[in-house]
């Protein structure tokens, strides 16, 4: 005979273990908050934009192949910006204690919606350093691309600036705590159902009937100690004559 669990039993289990579920959720949120605010290092972000100018061509003769060539050229520039040929000079100019490979992980380069504008985004624990790296990378690339590809079609469109009160882009404590709340809630519910499944104690007559697969013929009501004392007082032994 298959054992089925009704929706009512599920709600009873959740209600019974509600304190455990709430405690697990609160603990997960507290841990995420402590880690986000006091353990993880804040990371700041700064961006600069460079413009890749097209060579002067006759608009009437511009075809899809020319457009594709320009896009490929921009993609080539994106690779060159993060190459050691550029980043090693950035490290040298800023006297950074890092390597080109490590600096590459801090820099993101992408063109703006298949346009001629290229965004250089830098993330660093120091907001001032993030701005310096972004601007220096753009200026070094503008200078070195002339020697690398014998072209002079790059100009800095928007330099990186440091705001008055820069705020970190990560970690996001509120987001981390919200995710932790969901995970803690799921974990608490899982533990509640696991404890209920592992609990094999007999609690009522229904558990006895399910365990023995036999019908219940009668019940013995519990007798409290007070009722037991009252019954002894009421029953008086007969005196012998």
From TrEMBL:
Ordered alphabetically, the record's keywords are: Cell membrane, Membrane, Transmembrane, Transmembrane helix
For this chain, the family text in UniProt reads: Belongs to the CpsC/CapA family.
One Pfam family name from the record?
Answer: GNVR
Q: What is the lineage of its organism?
A: Bacteria, Bacillati, Bacillota, Bacilli, Bacillales
Topology term for the membrane:
Multi-pass membrane protein
Q: What is its main location?
A: membrane
Could you identify this protein by its name? Wzz/FepE/Etk N-terminal domain-containing protein
Show the stretches that span the lipid bilayer. Answer: 20-44, 174-195
Q: Which compartment or compartments is the protein found in?
A: Cell membrane
């Amino acid at each position: 005979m298959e054992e089925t669990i009704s929706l009512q039993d599920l709600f009873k289990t959740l209600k019974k273990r509600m304190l455990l579920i709430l405690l697990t959720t609160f603990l997960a949120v507290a841990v995420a908050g402590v880690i986000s605010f006091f353990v993880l290092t804040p990371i700041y972000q700064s961006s600069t934009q460079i413009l890749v100018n097209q060579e002067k061509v006759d608009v009437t003769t511009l075809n899809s192949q020319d457009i594709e060539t320009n896009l490929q050229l921009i993609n080539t520039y994106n690779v060159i910006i993060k190459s050691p040929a550029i980043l090693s000079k950035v490290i040298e100019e800023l006297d950074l204690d890092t390597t080109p490979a490590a600096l590459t992980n801090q820099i993101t380069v992408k063109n703006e919606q298949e346009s001629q504008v290229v965004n250089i985004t830098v993330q660093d624990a120091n907001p001032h350093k993030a701005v310096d790296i972004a601007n220096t990378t753009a200026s070094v690339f503008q200078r070195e691309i002339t020697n690398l590809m014998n072209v002079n079609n790059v100009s800095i469109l928007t330099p990186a600036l440091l705001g008055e009160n820069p705020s970190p882009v990560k970690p996001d404590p509120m987001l981390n705590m919200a995710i932790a709340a969901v995970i803690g809630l799921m974990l608490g519910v899982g533990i509640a159902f696991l404890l209920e499944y592992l609990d094999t104690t007999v609690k009522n007559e229904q558990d006895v009937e399910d365990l023995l697969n036999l019908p219940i013929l009668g019940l013995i009501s519990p007798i409290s100690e007070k009722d037991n004392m009252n019954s002894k007082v009421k029953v008086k032994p007969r005196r012998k004559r």
